[in-house]
């Protein structure tokens, strides 16, 4: 279930990187992709990679975002006029999102088996035999 919740927005936003007509939107969609893939890496147990990957990639996207804005000379006032027409749709999507979050968090989950994560294993490896 969690896999599909993380995988489907990553696939859709990956397609929207290519399909978005506004260059600013096509630069912002990979941020969602990297956040979703970091969630998938956490599910795989790769804690360190899940934390470092978004920081590095989103930093690179911020630089490319600055480059796109400077290169195309996009006027911010034009973007604000277009945003107001999407306000009702975004409000409905936001309400659906919050409804789903409360629905998911309300369900009792089965506890995971106690396992050692990568950071715990690293602690035992580095500090083995030390008090």
From TrEMBL:
Q: Which InterPro entries match?
A: NADH_UbQ/plastoQ_OxRdtase_su6 (IPR001457), Nuo/plastoQ_OxRdtase_6_NuoJ (IPR042106)
For this protein, the record's Gene3D superfamilies field holds: NADH-ubiquinone/plastoquinone oxidoreductase chain 6, subunit NuoJ
Write down the Pfam families for this protein, in alphabetical order: Oxidored_q3
Q: Which segment of the chain is annotated as a signal peptide?
A: 1-20
Presence of the UniProt keyword tRNA processing in the record? no
Which molecular function term from Gene Ontology is one that the record holds?
NADH dehydrogenase (ubiquinone) activity
Protein name stated in the entry: NADH-ubiquinone oxidoreductase chain 6
Q: Which organism is it from?
A: Triticum turgidum subsp. durum
């Amino acid at each position: 279930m969690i896999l599909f919740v993380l995988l489907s927005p990553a696939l859709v936003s990956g397609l929207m990187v290519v399909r978005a007509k506004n260059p600013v939107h096509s630069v912002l969609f990979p941020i969602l992709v990297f956040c979703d893939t970091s969630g998938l890496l956490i599910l795989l147990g790769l804690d360190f990679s899940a934390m470092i990957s978004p920081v590095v990639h989103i930093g690179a996207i911020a630089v490319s975002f600055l480059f796109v804005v400077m290169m195309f000379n996009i006027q911010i006032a034009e973007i604000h006029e277009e945003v107001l027409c999407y306000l009702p749709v975004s409000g409905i999507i936001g309400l659906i999102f919050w409804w789903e979050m409360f629905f998911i968090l309300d369900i009792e989950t089965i506890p995971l088996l106690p396992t050692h994560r990568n950071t715990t294993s690293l602690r035992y490896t580095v500090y083995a035999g030390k008090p």
